[in-house]
């Protein structure tokens, strides 16, 4: 059950359960399944079966599993499920710089997470804090794995201010297939670390901008889980190395 306390000393109770389906996906699955039933009644089996299968795929895409969020004032958790495809020092986007309370112009570390159509597409807050800004930008729908997607694709920028005044930026980016970013929060909302804050429909990318003095705790090519995988620890600049095998 959501809200149960877990720790690394065996306290808490792990449960296995079928993930719930987010309401955004239920209506599409019902429409698709309804069309498959109509096709079946009309004996159009070549259409009915593919539509029934498609409805199951839609349910799988919009699944919304519970997550166990690690607790720690200095932790930044992954905002998305997927694969780390880029770790780079970049200037923050103009929309995240802000004149007051933004990331500024100095280069920061950006971690880019690519979400395939098989990943969970519910995005979560990387830390606890207040949503101080949200900027939606219309744009193109090029492959979200490309670097230029951060500047050219349809995207939504968010700034989250922690209780200590540290600001964390993230960007939801629509991909080649996706066509809509759905926010669950608005400016002024107070969010918890790992809280659901939005979703992106079908294949996309999420960028997380680490505050100054914070280095990534993940590696290129690593799989991460929204709300669970620690991407950074504020104030720590330890270099990580790994071997792909």
Shape assignment: globular
> Structural class, judged by helices and strands?
alpha+beta
Q: Uncertain spans, ≥5 residues at pLDDT below 50?
A: none
What portion of the residues fall into strands of 2 or more residues?
A: 25-35%
Number of helices: 4
In spatial order, strands of the major sheet run 11-7-8-9-13-5-4-14
CATH architectural label of the largest domain: Distorted Sandwich
**Integer count of domains:** 2
| Major sheet size, sense and barrel closure | 8 strands, antiparallel
Q: Quick check: average pLDDT? A: 86
Please count the beta strands (DSSP E, at least 2 residues each): 15
The CATH topology annotation of the largest domain reads as Glucose Permease (Domain IIA)
Q: For the terminal residues, how far apart are their CA atoms? A: 36 Å
Element order: H for helix, E for strand: EHHEEEHEEEHEEEEEEEE
Question: Helix amount, in percent?
Answer: 10-25%
Could you tell me the radius of gyration in angstroms? 19 Å
């Amino acid at each position: 059950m959501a809200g149960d306390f877990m720790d690394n000393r065996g306290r808490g109770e792990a449960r296995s359960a079928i993930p719930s389906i987010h309401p955004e996906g239920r209506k599409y699955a019902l429409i698709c399944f309804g069309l498959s039933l109509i096709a079946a009644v009309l004996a159009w089996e070549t259409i009915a079966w593919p539509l029934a299968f498609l409805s199951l795929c839609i349910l799988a895409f919009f699944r919304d599993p519970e997550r166990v969020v690690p607790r720690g004032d200095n932790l930044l958790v992954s905002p998305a499920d997927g694969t780390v495809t880029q770790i780079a020092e970049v200037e923050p986007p103009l929309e995240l710089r802000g004149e007051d309370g933004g990331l500024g112009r100095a280069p920061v570390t950006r971690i880019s997470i690519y979400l395939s159509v098989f990943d969970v597409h519910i995005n979560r807050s990387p830390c606890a804090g207040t949503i101080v800004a949200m900027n939606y930008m219309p744009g193109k729908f090029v492959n979200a794995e490309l670097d230029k997607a951060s500047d050219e694709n349809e995207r939504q920028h968010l700034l989250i201010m922690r209780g200590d005044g540290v600001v964390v930026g993230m960007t939801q980016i629509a991909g080649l297939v996706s066509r809509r970013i759905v926010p669950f929060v608005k400016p002024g909302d107070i969010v918890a670390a790992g809280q659901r804050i939005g979703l992106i429909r079908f294949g996309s990318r999420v960028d997380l901008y680490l505050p100054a003095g914070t280095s990534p705790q993940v590696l290129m090519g690593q799989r991460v889980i929204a709300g669970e995988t620690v991407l950074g620890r504020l104030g720590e600049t330890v270099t990580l190395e790994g071997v792909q095998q």
